[in-house]
Amino acid sequence: MMAGTSEQRLARIEAQLDIGQLPIRYALAVDQRDLDAWVALFVPDVDMGRRGAGRQALRDYIEPQLRWFYRSVHLLAGHRIELGPGEEPVTATGQVYCRAEHEVGDRWIVMAIRYDDTYRLVDGDWLFERRRERHWYAADLAEHPQAVGFDSWGTGGPPALPAADPAWNRFWAPDGHPLSR
């Protein structure tokens, strides 16, 4: 049993639950190309190294990278959270396993990823302080989803996602990029 008062134990449980939502919120924001939601998951003073600090520096860095691939799907496979010291921690670390798939031109790239995260409590919200992406591999699938209309099982025609997400359409619309394929 955890030490501390009921309130302290509850605060730790709530912290783990809140932190546990960050990776899925991150995956949804990336796959929907919702840059506002994505940068809001990071601390306001996020350190971007030589690129500067803050959410705008983060946004300026990530937007061009998101244009390297058209569609993506991030599937989370597990999340370890280690709360910082004390009964009411304000920091934590974690690791998230992810299988990510990306449409890159006529290729469909699958990546095995582990994110090494640092979290910080800011104004009552748990946020990413740092997110380090590490890959096991990135490889093209043997069968290209595009070649089979994204539906080799015959489950219902063209995919609804990502075009069903308003943020996705807003992201690509200024470029005149096709809103669906």
From TrEMBL:
Pfam short name (any one): SnoaL_4
Record InterPro entries: NTF2-like_dom_sf (IPR032710), SnoaL-like (IPR037401)
Organism, as annotated: Amycolatopsis balhimycina DSM 5908
SnoaL-like domain ranges (all copies): 12-132
The organism's place on the tree of life at top rank: Bacteria
Name listed for the protein in its UniProt record: Nuclear transport factor 2 family protein
Taxonomic lineage of the native organism: Bacteria, Bacillati, Actinomycetota, Actinomycetes, Pseudonocardiales
